[in-house]
Amino acid sequence: MSGLWNWSVAGLIEPxxxxxxxxxxxxxxxxELPDVGPGALMxxxxxxxxxFPTLIDVFLAPDDVAEETIASAVAVRLxxxxxxxxxxxxxxxxxxxxxxxxxxxxxxxxxxxxDGAERRHARPCTGADPACATGPGCGRSRFRPGGDPAxxxx
Length: 154
What we know:
Layout: E1 3-9, H1 15-26, E2 30-32, E3 41-47, E4 54-61, H2 67-78, E5 82-85, E6 93-97, E7 102-112, E8 117-124, H3 130-134, E9 150-151
Parallel strand pairs: 2-3
Antiparallel strand pairs: 1-4, 1-5, 3-4, 5-6, 6-7, 7-8, 7-9
Helix pairs in contact: 1-2
């Protein structure tokens, strides 16, 4: 375990609900900062504005499972859409894990605030969106623009 996952969830989700969904998806204990028990992942949950106001930081994330697989399972358990970073360097591009487990590439508008990043206006990455031209990689990603969304085994 050595990774860091940063996600945003649509809707105001209570921290206990997030930690329970994450624990269920990972089949591992998840603790609240700063009181984390031995062997537990560390998880911080806080709220900002925007369309995805619940921010989740997972510290010491496992490196033996794909982040998008766990994000998809958490989205299903929460019944809410979840944004996670994609595999490009485009700052507006994310992977959207939908409440049914579907994964698709999207672009979002992002604004930094004193409380954290606010993300709004999620829209499909089509390859023709002006946001696709602002950063590299949309066409080289595992999550291709447009096309059929990927489904996860959530």
